[in-house]
Amino acid sequence: MFTLFPLPRFGGKRRFDQLGDQEILALAISAEEEDGRIYALYAQKLQADFPASAAVFAGMAEEENGHRHRLIELYRRRFGELILPIRREHVADFYSRRPVWLVENLPLERIREEAQAMERQAHTFYLAAAGRTADAETRKLLGDLAAAEASHVRKAGVLEAHHLDDETRDAEDSTARRQFILTWVQPGLAGLMDGSVSTLAPIFATAFATQSTWTTFLVGLSASIGAGISMGFTEAAHDDGKLSGRGSPVKRGLASGIMTTLGGLGHALPYLIPEFWTATFIALVVVFIELWAIVWIQNRYMETPFARATFQVVLGGALVLAAGILIGGA
Question: What share of the chain is helix, strand, coil (3-state, %, to 5)?
Answer without folding.
Answer: 80, 0, 20
